[in-house]
């Protein structure tokens, strides 16, 4: 597994981590063992959210007695993003997980609450030792500029922007990814396999992935992850519901594709024109 600095936080984080959206929808014990297997395989980045139902509880069970091994991220919903409600939402997440702190706390997406309020809550939570850094999710460049201006004005930094990013959805490469690279902000790719539509060998792109995977003794999903994290500021958080799948995902953290492979994948999955708004699911 390769590690890199997570934005300005000073923490070295695995380039492949673990998402937990819908992880509570399947077998509970399998989910817990999947997280533990991922940790054993070097994936120290675990992402969850108050929106994810019992996922925070499962994460807490999985990391019991291993909290110091984990870079733990959770998220506050925009309807809870006022200064007082953000702090209460964070405390609820801490209780569900059974931890005293989050390594990073994110605003899940932009809502009606002024960013100044949410960021003020993040600063309060930092001063209380309940979070160690903060960031945002699903922010396009206009929102990033606004958040960056507020943060800079009070001596704060944005740790990351968590965004939708997979082979069939490369919109962030137009502006968000370059903006984050210029400003030292990490980019976390959620749903890196898409949403139930990962390319298979029935289509040309899927065949390209399979051919490259065969050359490396890898799987097409490992190749896809390696492509996404080719940029030095990007991290990916695929979900795994079984230990075997977690171990497979982790192995992508050691896969280095050649420049030719990257170019072939780029042609097979063109990023397309820049959309008017940043996609999200």
Please explain how this structure is put together:
The protein has 281 residues and is α/β, with parallel strands linked by helices. The chain has a single domain, classed as NADP-dependent oxidoreductase domain (TIM Barrel). The protein contains ten helices and nine strands. It has helices at residues 28-40, 55-62, 83-97, 115-127, 141-153, 176-183, 204-216, 220-228, 243-251, 259-268; strands at 3-5, 12-14, 45-47, 71-76, 104-107, 134-137, 160-164, 186-190, 234-236. The strands form two sheets. It has a seven-stranded parallel beta sheet, with helices on one face. Helix 1 runs parallel beside helix 9 and helix 7 (204-216) crosses helix 8. The radius of gyration is 18 Å and the shape is globular. The mean pLDDT is 96.
Quick summary:
The protein is an alpha/beta fold and 281 residues long.
User: Any idea what the radius of gyration is?
Assistant: 18 Å
Tell me the CATH topology: TIM Barrel
> End-to-end distance, in Å?
28 Å
Strand order in the largest sheet: 3-4-5-6-7-8-9
In the CATH hierarchy, what is the architecture at level 2? Answer: Alpha-Beta Barrel
Rough outline: globular
Which percent range fits the helix content?
25-40%
Mind describing the biggest β-sheet?
7 strands, parallel
**Strand percentage, roughly?**
5-15%
When the domains are counted, the total is: 1
Number of helices: 10
* SSE pattern, N- to C-terminal: EEHEHEHEHEHEHEHHEHH
Name the CATH superfamily classification: NADP-dependent oxidoreductase domain
Say what oligomer this is.
single chain
Got a strand count?
9
């Amino acid at each position: 597994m390769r590690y890199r600095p997570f934005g300005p936080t000073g923490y070295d984080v695995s380039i492949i981590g673990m998402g937990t959206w819908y992880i509570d929808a399947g077998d509970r014990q399998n989910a817990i063992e999947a997280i533990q297997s991922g940790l054993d395989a070097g994936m120290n980045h675990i992402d969850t959210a108050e929106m994810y139902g019992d996922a925070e509880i499962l994460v807490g069970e999985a990391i019991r007695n291993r909290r110091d091994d984990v870079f733990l991220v959770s998220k506050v919903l925009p309807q809870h993003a006022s200064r007082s409600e953000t702090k209460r939402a964070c405390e609820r997440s801490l209780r569900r997980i059974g931890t005293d702190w989050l390594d990073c706390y994110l605003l899940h997406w932009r809502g009606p609450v002024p960013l100044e309020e949410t960021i003020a809550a993040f600063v309060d939570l930092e001063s209380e030792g309940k979070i160690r850094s903060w960031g945002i999710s699903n922010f396009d460049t206009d929102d990033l500029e606004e958040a960056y201006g507020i943060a800079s004005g009070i001596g704060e930094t944005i740790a990351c922007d968590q965004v939708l990013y997979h082979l069939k959805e490369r919109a962030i490469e137009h502006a968000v990814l370059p903006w984050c690279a210029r400003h030292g902000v990490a980019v976390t790719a959620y749903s890196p396999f898409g949403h139930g539509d990962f390319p298979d060998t029935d289509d040309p792109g899927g065949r390209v992935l399979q051919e490259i995977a065969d050359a490396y003794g890898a799987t097409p999903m490992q190749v896809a992850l390696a492509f996404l994290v080719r940029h030095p500021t990007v991290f990916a958080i695929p979900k795994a519901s079984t230990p075997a799948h977690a171990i497979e995902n982790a192995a992508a953290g050691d896969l280095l594709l050649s420049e030719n492979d990257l170019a072939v994948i780029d042609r097979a999955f063109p990023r397309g024109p820049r959309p008017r708004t940043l996609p999200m699911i």
